[in-house]
Specification:
By secondary structure, this protein is α/β, with parallel strands linked by helices. The protein has two domains: 53 residues, no CATH class; 147 residues, Zincin-like (2-Layer Sandwich), CATH 3.30.2010. Helix content is 38%, strand content 21%. The chain contains six helices and ten strands. Helix 3 crosses helix 4 and helix 4 packs across helix 6. The longest helix has 28 residues.
Length: 222
């Protein structure tokens, strides 16, 4: 079965990565000089996984886009919190055991929520990176928060760890797994057995948290 590549991205990475996007399109990230034949061979080996992933995406119930109306719920650290609309308040969006949004800010509700999530994500994820780095002897150069839609995290060749703000919607133990995953890439660039053994050393229950992300990742959106 021939798998069509919708997007091929070459960079200074060391390994080939296959990504089935949420709309079913297929993206390949590959090192600059790897031959196309090697990419095609790797895709052929992963044909069953690509097909299963696409079928799972197709059969999944669509996640309704938020309307920023009173009574809607928004995830934070794995728990749903109700949104209430108010006439006026000091900040357009506030959180205190639930979200409150000014009526006048509702049209820009998504922008306010994204800003709030990004700030919380940087605070929480930076703290988790510091804790695990100190505990296991890692020295990442910095932590950045991105708006990536299909990748929970990444590790650059310069030691920068990137995490999508959507991750802060997940339970803390799931965040810890993604932190462990990217920290492990500071020492092992690929996804070999050595890599997963290192992840397990940092996060012993990583398989359960990885499964949670696969099954619930679609819900971490606005």
């Amino acid at each position: 079965m021939q798998i069509q590549i919708d997007k091929l991205i070459r960079s200074k990475r060391r390994t080939i990565a296959l990504i089935v996007e949420r709309d079913g399109t297929f993206t390949v990230r590959a090192p600059l000089r790897v031959p196309q034949a090697e990419i095609d061979s790797f895709i052929q080996q992963k044909t069953d996984w690509i097909t299963r992933t696409r079928e799972k995406i197709k059969s999944a119930q669509p996640v309704l886009k938020k309307q920023y109306a009173g009574g809607e719920t928004f995830l934070f650290l794995g728990s749903p919190f109700e949104l209430k609309l108010v006439e006026r308040q000091k900040l357009a969006l506030q959180f205190n055991d639930g979200f409150t949004l000014s009526q006048s800010a509702r049209e820009r509700g998504e922008a306010y929520f994204v800003h709030w999530y990004k700030e919380r994500a940087f605070e929480i994820i930076s703290e988790r990176v510091r804790e695990y780095s100190q505990r296991h002897g890692f020295t990442p150069s910095q932590v950045k928060i991105s708006s990536a839609k299909t990748r929970w995290g990444s590790c650059s060749s310069t030691g920068t760890l990137n995490f999508t703000w959507r991750l802060v919607m997940a339970p803390l133990e799931v965040i810890d797994y993604v932190v462990a995953h990217e920290l492990a890439h500071l020492r092992v660039k690929n996804h070999s057995r050595k890599f997963w053994k290192l992840v397990e050393t940092i996060c012993p229950d990583y398989k359960r948290h990885r499964k949670w992300l696969r099954e619930n990742g679609e819900r971490l959106s606005l």
